[in-house]
Structure to design on (225 residues):
């Protein structure tokens, strides 16, 4: 079946540090790969979407890239701010399917 | 447009009680999901509806968890009887069509004592 692995449980950075979060996936289809962000007290919201047609997505200073060869996708930001502190989930929607499979989430803490 | 609305935001229940969580999806959305969120397990799918039909009921959660979609604009999740291990945040999400972006509510935090 389809699966997503997100190993980094928590990442602690200082403001202006570089952020890199990695997920690996397994599917037999052509998937859409997504990143959701969840701020404290809120539900997750879509941050970025990457399809096999476009290997990269950019939003709010975040960049998502996708590597079919290693079946991995990454979220990065050149310079994090304290306001970026949140939980970041990667997710996979298999081609032709209807429901996403979520990673376990990475809690990002950014110190001023 | 209103987003996904969940009530109550917080619930404290005694072991063995029945609790009902409520969700109003985004108007016009066809798909509705219920998830349980814990720090250890992350997001676990409890139920999935497409156009009010139950498509998936989350396997391991079948015995005490029952989700219903009474109409296209209202869904409930009943937990009966509650156990302390059910303490978690319960999230409802909706999407326009299969494979589209999920819009989540703010969640219902349940504590079972």
């Amino acid at each position: 079946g389809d699966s997503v692995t997100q190993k980094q449980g928590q990442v602690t950075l200082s403001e202006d540090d570089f952020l890199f979060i990695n997920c690996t996936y397994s599917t037999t289809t052509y998937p859409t790969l997504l990143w959701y962000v969840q701020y404290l007290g809120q539900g997750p919201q879509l941050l970025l979407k990457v399809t096999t047609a476009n290997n990269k997505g950019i939003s709010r200073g975040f960049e998502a890239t996708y590597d079919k060869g290693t079946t991995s996708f990454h979220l990065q930001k050149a310079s994090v701010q304290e306001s970026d502190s949140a939980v970041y989930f990667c997710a996979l929607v298999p081609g032709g399917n209807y429901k996403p499979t979520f990673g376990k989430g990475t809690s990002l803490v950014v110190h001023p | 447009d209103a987003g996904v609305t969940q009530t109550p935001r917080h619930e404290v229940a005694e072991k063995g009680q029945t609790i009902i969580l409520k969700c109003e999806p985004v108007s016009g959305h066809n798909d509705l999901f219920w998830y349980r969120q814990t720090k250890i397990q992350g997001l676990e799918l409890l139920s999935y509806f497409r156009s009010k039909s139950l498509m998936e009921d989350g396997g391991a959660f079948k015995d005490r968890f029952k989700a219903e979609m009474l109409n296209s604009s209202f869904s409930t999740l009943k937990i009966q009887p509650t156990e302390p291990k059910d303490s978690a945040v319960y999230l409802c999400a909706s999407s326009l069509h299969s494979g589209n972006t999920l819009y989540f509510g703010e969640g219902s935090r349940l504590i079972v004592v």
